[in-house]
From TrEMBL:
Record domain Helicase C-terminal: where: 56-123
Coiled coil location: 6-33
Organism whose genome encodes this protein: Oikopleura dioica (Tunicate)
Pfam families: Helicase_C (PF00271)
Keywords of the record: Coiled coil
Keyword Coiled coil set for record: yes
SUPFAM superfamilies: P-loop containing nucleoside triphosphate hydrolases (SSF52540)
Protein name, entry field: Helicase C-terminal domain-containing protein
Gene3D superfamilies, per the entry: P-loop containing nucleotide triphosphate hydrolases
Length: 132
C-alpha cells in the first residue's frame, strides 16, 4: 500500500512525472513558469543509470544560470549516495525516496520549488509510482 500524500505533494510529483516524460535522459529543457516561477529557469532532468554522467553534472553545477536539477536513480541507495556525495563536497542537495515521510517530502519539494536547494535527488519509484 502506497503512503498517503497531501494534494500539494501529489501535484508536485505529477509535475515531476510530466517532466520526466517530456525530457529524455540528460536533455536540457527550458520552460517558463515551471513550478509557478515567473522567470525563465533551466530545468535539467538526469536519469543517472551510471556514474558516467558525473562530468555532465559537474558542468551543470559550475554554470552561472538559474538551474533546477532533478537527478533520478534506479535505486534509492544510489540516490542516497549521490545526495551524500554532493552534500559532502559542499553542494546542497535534497534527497527523497519511496519511504520518505510526507513532511520531509513536502519540505524537499518546497525548497526545490523555491530554488532554495536547487538539486533534488530521488529514486525512480518516487517519480513513477501511481497516485493513490
Amino acid at each position: 500500500m502506497a503512503p498517503r500524500r497531501s494534494k500539494r505533494v501529489q501535484e508536485r510529483l505529477q509535475k515531476a512525472r510530466d517532466k520526466l516524460q517530456e525530457a529524455r535522459a540528460n536533455e536540457i529543457v527550458t520552460k517558463k513558469n515551471f513550478f509557478g516561477k515567473t522567470n525563465t529557469t533551466m530545468i535539467v532532468v538526469m536519469n543517472m543509470t551510471s556514474y558516467n554522467e558525473m562530468p555532465f553534472l559537474r558542468r551543470l553545477l559550475t554554470a552561472e544560470q538559474n538551474i533546477l536539477i532533478m537527478i533520478i536513480h534506479d535505486y534509492k541507495a544510489d540516490a542516497e549516495i549521490t545526495s551524500c556525495f554532493l552534500n559532502d563536497i559542499g553542494i546542497a542537495a535534497n534527497y527523497i525516496h519511496e519511504h520518505t515521510n510526507q513532511r520531509a517530502r513536502e519540505y524537499a519539494l518546497k525548497n526545490f520549488d523555491r530554488e532554495k536547494i536547487p538539486i533534488l535527488v530521488t529514486s525512480r519509484k518516487v517519480v513513477l509510482e501511481s497516485q493513490t
